[in-house]
Amino acid sequence: AGIRIHVHQGKHDQELLPRLNEVLRGYPGRMPVSVSLEMNSGEIVQLATHRHKVSITPELRGRLDDLLGENSHSLLVSPPKATSGKSYKRSNQEN
User: Fold this and answer.
1) Which residues of 64-87 are buried (b: 16+ CB within 10 A; e: fewer)?
2) N or C: which end of the chain has fewer CB within 10 A?
3) Does the global pTM surpass 0.85?
């Protein structure tokens, strides 16, 4: 679980990273942040940040859209975890 931020080298200038850092610092939380950087060559570099963990809120998502443009991020979800090792059988007995 967490959030992946998409940055395109051709669309964003060098001032982006300090501004992105400022936005992320404003939403401290427990969710990890990763950055997908698309280079002008088409190569995609995946970066994981250990500095930031955020609280993913509608406000944070709106600020990312304002800074980077729409579809600038995606939510990462984890598959649900089993709560116990027990399995339950349905009873077809009539009373």
Assistant:
1) beebbeeebbeeeeeeeeeeeeee
2) C
3) no
